[in-house]
Design brief:
The structure holds two protein chains of two kinds.
Chain A: H1 2-30, H2 36-54, H3 59-82, H4 93-112, H5 133-155, H6 157-167, H7 169-174, H8 179-205, H9 211-226, H10 231-252, H11 254-271
Chain B: H1 16-35, H2 42-67, H3 76-91, H4 100-124, H5 127-147, H6 149-152, E1 158-159, H7 170-192, H8 195-205, H9 207-212, H10 217-243, E2 245-246, H11 253-266, H12 272-287, H13 295-309, H14 313-317, E3 351-361, E4 364-375, E5 379-383, H15 390-397, E6 405-410, E7 413-414, E8 428-430, H16 443-449, H17 459-463, H18 467-487, H19 502-514, E9 520-524, H20 532-547, E10 551-555, H21 559-565, E11 568-573, E12 576-581, H22 583-588, H23 590-597
Parallel strand pairs in B: 5-10, 5-11, 8-9, 9-10
Antiparallel strand pairs in B: 1-2, 3-4, 3-6, 6-7, 11-12
Helix pairs in contact in B: 2-7, 2-8, 2-10, 2-11, 2-12, 3-4, 3-5, 3-10, 4-5, 4-10, 8-16, 11-12, 11-13, 16-18, 16-19, 18-19
Classes of the chains: A mainly alpha, B alpha/beta.
């Protein structure tokens, strides 16, 4: 039982962590939390099932097509819902515009795909039991993503430009960095990471339109607890959340696990609004 | 300002006719609603009942979303909660059977409690967090309803309550719901037109200024969440009765979206707009059958369009009054003489002292070992080049920043650190470098916000328009009108403040600050953007205010104004005091002349 708690919990946690990173990548580029994070995760599963199962594409082609769709979705998010409201960031209009867009995608999926959870194809002809691919695939995806992002941000010029914009938007623009193009690139990257999470997690979570709000919430919890913009915080928080949820699931049942997560979330936020690992907020006058 | 010997423009304009004009749309809707049974179409009755029930919930949510600007997207959870509480208590699955009215009241109680719990994060955190907790709560409530089979019946469900005669027939129940909807409209309209409503909008659009006039955001939001949760719980009970049998499936997230979008389509800060929005969104899918599957998708599209293209919603379209052009060539003519006898006669006033205050931002020393003394009845000028720490000094005094060293003392007693909302009660008022006003509210409302702490009525008194609430309103309106006359803007009292020119906004801020009858008034560059003539008038106004016993701290770049009216001047440079003394001494100070004033 312990092994199944750990493997299932870590796998779920890896998906949450990836969604958390999706939030973060968009946030660092624009100071915007986007509701599309969970929806891209949901689409990763739905599109994967669509491409591979219904359209009969080879796994690898379906995989690439799904991620590409995620990138396109990220770009549309930026152009349609973020850029127009960036000027008035303090009015929080982005919450509404990204919510509206996320809902549109979700409803479209419900109508055109299905409102019932659909099975997701087995991706690889290997592994079974407690070490099934449905458990380790998300973990591998999470590890690859975090290593890749570290490499991108620390070792490449474009990654440093990302960081410069996250640190000080005005100064970065004054240096002549193409802020807008970098922001678009960030959103495309976020779309890829989101769909990757959904694709690798779909054998577990199935291709289901209702996963969107769920991933939105459980992906945001590690971000809020681990500190906004911190990818390491998101990974640690995500894995911890997954393990906690599964343990509670086995010990006391699923609903109480959800209630417990919710209570912990609210209490931590009230005690430490900046998150367990975050820094205090900046000036506002 | 209590002396009204020379009475300014009357506050009238809200007389019988104007009130009727404001009430007319609601009356029309009410009459239309009352005539609905004449169609003798039971399906129409169901739609009408549903619209009434939704409005009971939306009217409360409107105060959270439309007025306070808190993005609550999962409010369906409270509807679910109320529905189950009412049904469970009337069906007797968990407790002895109760009368449906009592069960409905208990549902309201549960709704109020959970409204506050869900709202807790909004008291301290940014908007997005609150949106997320309401979303999380919405998913959990449905899961609990599904799993707690012994009480909720799980997926099978429980029967809804049936209200006794005369509300047992469909039309009887319709009128019951219509009555409650009317009650909610009346109550929230009362709140909207009270200092609570104005304070909520201030939290939404000018949070920093709201703190400066003494509005405590957490206290206010808790009350609003209590009310909003309670009506949502009651709406849930009604909903259960209308459904006659409830299962978790009945409470889809789409409903939440409907409630939320009805408010935004209607327009933030309006009662009529969201009411129309609710009716339209409830009725539309019923009359356009092919749209039903697509309705939530269309709501989302509508939301996106509203956010990007017309943030004001229906209310702005209907706001004919504010399209009448304002007079073109306006002049601000303050009438300081209207201040009358000393505005706060009991003031021995005391001194505001800064003792060795230091504050750094990262490696930058914004102010460094600053000492400053502002006395009652004097104008104290604070000048210096950009970045010398003038505004930071103001922010330390008004409590936005806590100094890392040193103290701010009011007549020898230390002021609470980092507690800007306590300054108003201490008699410290201020204006801001960039005016912080509520663009969507009238000039008069903006000024009335300055007197928030003088209101005596409670939230409930405002809700029910009890006498003390009405006295508060009359008193605040009168005082605000006087303050506006003092700064010379009474003719613009009923204009939306975002239609004013920049210079006028500065005077509105001064009027708002005067509402406190402050012992100390901190002015941050009040003369920026004014004409030479207006600056002179501003000088007279400031001088009159100070001669009544108010200590004024004036941050300014206009050297003429400073030297004309100040009793003492402090010059800052790089956060340190470069010189301090009478205007004549400062003018003769060699370093000051070299560094700042110029040869």
């Amino acid at each position: 039982m312990l092994v199944s708690i750990v493997s299932y919990g870590l796998a779920l946690g890896a998906v949450y962590a990836l969604i958390g990173i999706t939030y973060n990548v968009m946030f660092t580029a624009s100071r915007v939390f986007s509701f599309t994070a969970g929806v891209t995760g949901m689409l990763g599963g739905v599109l994967g099932a669509l491409f591979i199962d219904r359209l009969g594409m080879p796994v690898i082609v379906g995989f690439v097509a799904t991620l590409a769709a995620g990138a396109v979705l990220g770009i549309i998010t930026e152009v349609l819902t973020v850029r127009p409201v960036l000027k008035s960031l303090d009015q929080h209009l982005y919450v509404l515009s990204t919510l509206a867009f996320a809902l549109m995608i979700q409803q479209l999926t419900a109508i055109e795909w299905s409102t019932e959870p659909q099975p997701f194809p087995r991706l690889l002809p290997i592994g079974s039991g407690l070490f099934d691919q449905q458990f380790w695939l998300p973990m591998v995806a999470c590890a690859v993503t975090i290593v890749g992002l570290e490499w991108l941000y620390r070792r490449t010029l474009i990654g440093r430009a990302f960081l410069a914009i996250a640190e000080d938007n005005y100064a970065a623009r004054a240096l002549g960095l193409p802020e807008q193009r970098l922001r678009i690139a960030s959103y495309a990257l976020a779309g890829v990471i989101g769909t990757l999470a959904g694709f690798t997690g779909a054998e577990m979570l199935l291709a289901y339109f209702g996963n969107g709000p769920l991933l939105n919430f459980y992906g945001f919890v590690p971000v809020a607890l681990g500190g906004m913009g911190s990818n390491r915080g998101a990974v640690v928080g995500g894995l911890a959340l997954g393990l906690f949820q599964q343990t509670a699931n086995f010990m006391v049942g699923g609903i109480f696990a959800s209630v417990a997560v919710f209570v912990v979330f609210i209490v931590v936020l009230l005690v430490r609004p900046e998150g367990l690992a975050g820094a205090a907020t900046a000036r506002r006058v | 300002m209590k002396d009204l010997a020379t009475s300014p423009a009357p506050v009238a304009a809200k007389g019988g006719l104007a009130r009727l004009e404001a009430l007319a749309p609601v009356l029309v809707l009410l009459i239309a609603g009352a005539c609905l049974p004449l169609f003798d179409d039971s399906y129409l009755g169901v739609i009408g009942t549903r619209a009434c029930i939704y409005w009971v919930l939306v009217s409360g949510l409107n105060l959270v979303v439309g007025f306070a600007g808190q993005i609550a997207i999962g409010w369906v959870a409270l509807l679910t909660l109320g529905a189950y509480v009412t049904s469970v208590f009337t069906a007797g699955t968990a407790a002895p059977e109760l009368s449906p009215y009592l069960a409905l009241a208990i549902a309201g109680l549960f709704g109020a409690i959970f409204g506050v719990i869900v709202g807790l994060p909004a008291l301290r955190l940014r908007t997005f967090y609150f949106a997320m907790t309401t979303l999380g709560f919405a998913t959990i409530v449905t899961q609990v309803a599904l799993a707690w089979k012994s009480v909720t019946g799980g997926g099978v469900g429980v029967p809804g309550p049936i209200f006794p005669w005369p509300f047992s027939s469909p039309w009887g129940f319709y009128f019951f719901c219509l009555g409650l909807a009317l009650l909610c409209t009346w109550m929230t309209a009362n709140i909207a037109a009270s200092r609570v409503g104005r304070a909520l909008v201030a939290i939404r659009d000018a949070e920093v200024a709201a703190e400066a006039v003494g509005i405590s955001k957490p206290g206010l939001l808790v009350k609003v969440f209590l009310f909003s949760g309670a009506v949502a719980g009651v709406a849930g009970g009604l909903f259960a009765s209308l459904q006659s049998y409830i299962t978790p499936d009945a409470f889809t997230f789409d409903l939440s979206i409907l409630f939320f979008i009805a408010i935004l389509i209607g327009g933030r800060g309006s009662i009529l707009g969201p009411l129309l929005g609710t009716i339209i969104l409830t009725a539309l899918p019923e009359f356009a059958a092919p749209l039903v599957a697509w309705s939530t998708f269309l709501y989302a599209v509508l939301l996106l369009i509203i956010v990007l293209a017309m943030p004001g919603g229906i209310a702005e379209v209907l706001d004919f009054k504010n399209r009448r052009p304002l007079e073109r060539h306006r002049e601000i003519r303050p009438r300081p003489e209207l201040l009358g006898t000393p505005s706060n006669p009991d003031a021995s006033r005391g001194v505001l002292t800064l003792k060795n205050v230091s504050l750094s931002f990262g490696g930058v020393r914004a102010i460094d070992d600053l000492a400053l003394e502002i006395r009652a009845g004097e104008v104290h000028g604070l000048i210096g080049p950009n970045g010398s720490g003038k505004t930071t000094t103001l922010n330390v005094i008004s409590g936005y920043y806590a100094p890392q060293q040193g103290q701010v003392l009011l007549s020898g007693r230390a002021l609470r650190r980092r507690a800007p909302h306590t300054r108003a009660a201490q008699g410290i008022a201020r204006t801001f470098q960039t005016p912080r006003l509520i663009g969507a509210a009238s000039v008069l409302d903006n000024v009335m916000i300055g007197g928030s702490k003088d209101g005596r009525g409670t939230f409930v008194e405002s809700l029910l328009a009890l006498p003390r609430h009405r006295r508060d309103e009359a008193m605040l309106a009168q005082a605000a009108m006087t303050a506006l006359s003092v700064v010379g803007l009474e003719q613009l009292a009923f204009a939306r403040s975002d239609r004013l020119q920049h210079g006028e906004l500065r005077f509105v801020e001064i009027a708002r600050a005067l509402m406190l009858r402050p012992s100390f008034l901190l002015l941050d560059e009040p003369a920026a953007g004014l004409s030479a003539e207006e600056i002179k008038r501003l000088g007279d106004l400031i001088l009159t205010v100070s001669r009544q016993g108010t200590g004024v701290l004036l941050v300014e770049h206009h050297a003429d104004l400073i030297f004309d009216i100040c009793d003492r001047v402090t010059v800052l440079n790089l956060g340190r005091v470069l010189a301090s003394g009478t205007p004549a001494e400062i003018r003769a100070h060699r370093e000051v002349v070299n560094a700042y004033l110029g040869g």
